[in-house]
Amino acid sequence: MSAPGSSARILVVDDEAHLAAGIRENLLAEGYVAETAHNGAEGLHAARTATYDLIVLDVAMPEMDGLEMCRSLRGAGVETPVLFLTVRNAPEDRVGGLEAGGDDYLAKPFHLKELLLRISAILRRTKWYNETTATLRFGGNEIDFRTYRARAWDGTDHALTHKEAMILKLLAERGNSVVGREDILDRVWGYEVFPSTRTVDNFIVRLRRRFERSPEKPAHLHTIRGVGYRFTKEPEPVAVGDLPGRESS
Predict the structure, then answer these.
(1) Are the C-beta atoms of 215 and 231 separated by less than 8 Å?
(2) Pairing between strand 104-107 and 135-138?
């Protein structure tokens, strides 16, 4: 992973050739390596045959729109960060783009400075992710953050999304400390991307279903009501009064 502004490789996919060319020229001026594609099918081929640090992706395009292209990439296991560009900016449109696997969402028309700041922020988050511990083991689970593959305590294999892996990594780094929902949003998505912290709760539910032996009584991914979450690598000891057949004094 290249440092922001230092030869990070970016693919710009937009059917408006003049806009794609303008974005590319400005990215080159910032020190990035930038390439263009002009429809979803062309962009999908480029993203699956070469390695990029970021894809700037228009939503409305012929042959294959940006949402379909992003879903195809995620389905193929390509977790390159995606920044959507679109004329649609309603909350449901933003959520739809991010549920398709996007990392950020910028409405057209946009200011060049804002685009560059968002690109830099995504690259910083990805750099943090790539520089931290590669493997996490807890409760019979093993997570490989490089391949986004996981082996659960019951022997089942799982493919993580980039966001699921980032949340696990953040909580593990702060092990035994409470991490607020807003902090998770800021580190993993960028706080302004999602309209509600409820999104974090939904991701935690999915992770518990995969990696907790009893999702209703989690041993590792704990809810701190009204604040956020806390990760413990080893199950917390059971109080004497909670043991079967014992009454608390």
Answers:
(1) no
(2) unpaired
Q: How far apart are CA 11 and CA 72, in angstroms?
A: 16
pTM: 0.75
CA geometry: angle at 215 spanning 214 and 218, to 5°? 80
Q: Which contacts qualify for 22-27: CB closer than 8 Å, 24 or more apart?
A: 23/56, 23/115, 26/112, 26/116, 27/119
DSSP β-bridge partners for residue 143: 136, 150
CB 10 within 8 A of CB 32: yes
Give me the helices (H) in the chain, please: 17-29, 40-49, 66-75, 91-99, 112-131, 162-173, 181-188, 198-211
**Residue 140 is which amino acid?**
G
Backbone angles phi, psi at 231, to 5 degrees: -105, 135
| Residues paired with residue 84 on neighbouring β-strands, in sequence order | 57, 105
Mind giving me the DSSP string for 138-178? ETTEEEETTTTEEE-TTS-EEEPPHHHHHHHHHHHHTTTSE
Q: What is the pLDDT of residue 5?
A: 45
Q: Angle at which helices 112-131 and 17-29 pack, to 10 degrees?
A: 60
Q: Is the pLDDT of residue 70 over 80?
A: yes
143 backbone dihedrals φ, ψ, rounded to 5°: -110, 125
Is 29 exposed, middle or buried, given 0-12, 13-18 or 19+ CB atoms closer than 10 A? exposed
Q: Are 166 and 189 in contact (CB under 8 A)?
A: no
- Picking from 86, 36, 38, 47, the residue whose alpha carbon sits closest to that of residue 70 is 47
pLDDT digits (tens, 9 = 90+) for 74-97: 988 888 999 999 887 666 666 667
